[in-house]
Amino acid sequence: MDAVGLTFACAMTVEERIARRLGRTALVGLGVANGVPDGDRLVSFGIAGALRGDLPVGTVIDATRVVDETGSVLWEGGPLGVTPARTGTILGAGRIVDDPSERARLHRQTGADAVDMESGLLARSGRLVGCVRAISDTPTSRLAGLAEAVKLTGEPDLVGFVRGFLRAPRDTARAVANARRALRRLEAVT
User: Fold this and answer.
1) How distant, in Å, are the alpha carbons of 94, 144, 161 from that of 166?
2) Alpha carbon distances (Å) from 36 to 79, 99, 142
3) Does a structural domain hold residue 152?
4) In angstroms, what CA-CA distances link 158 with 73, 96, 161, 162, 174?
5) Is residue 1 one of the residues assigned to a domain?
6) Residue 95 CB neighbours (<10 A)
7) CA 87 – CA 80 distance, rounded (Å)
């Protein structure tokens, strides 16, 4: 992958630290809460949730399409050439999708392979040139308390994490392990 002239837009600080190895980064926050960054050529970079059961945790997707929740194409283009990665479609959602039945419905409705909260908004800017996402959770593995571990700005939220962990300790611990595996796979492709 040729990263010259690209800005890697990341939702969380942990993703941004990894992306810095590739070049210029921007912390956009969850759902692009911090705004669309400057730069003519944006890459949505980070983790995503699988909408298909055959995408194990750690699978890296070098997207060729981003769709919205109706299945309308927001961006389409060639892969960036990330190896090892598979091509696929990312669904840009306006919320965390953590319910297995909702994930199955969105996959059927849109044909998307994975979901995140940033790619759709970045695609709507007209400056998206690619999307690199590692699977951090499967349709049957919930994020549990991990969904509360990050502030909208992309900074860690320790109080939110503890609160979520206390509600679902086993599921949250598993989600943390899965997220770490996905982040290691992102590191490997950089």
Assistant:
1) 26, 10, 9
2) 21, 28, 28
3) yes
4) 36, 19, 5, 6, 17
5) no
6) 11
7) 10
Residue type, 108: R
Amino acid at 34: N
Averaged over successive runs of 10 residues, the pLDDT of the chain (190 residues) comes to 89 98 97 93 98 96 98 97 96 94 96 98 97 96 92 97 96 97 97
**Residue 4: predicted pLDDT:** 83
- What is the extent of the structural domain holding 121? 7-189
Strand bridging mode 114-116 / 42-50: antiparallel
Q: Give rounded-to-5 percent helix, strand, coil for the chain.
A: 35, 25, 40
Question: Which domain CATH number covers 32?
Answer: 3.40.50
Q: Is the dihedral of CA 26, 28, 29, 30 positive or negative?
A: negative
Domain count, the chain: 1
The predicted model scores a pTM of 0.96
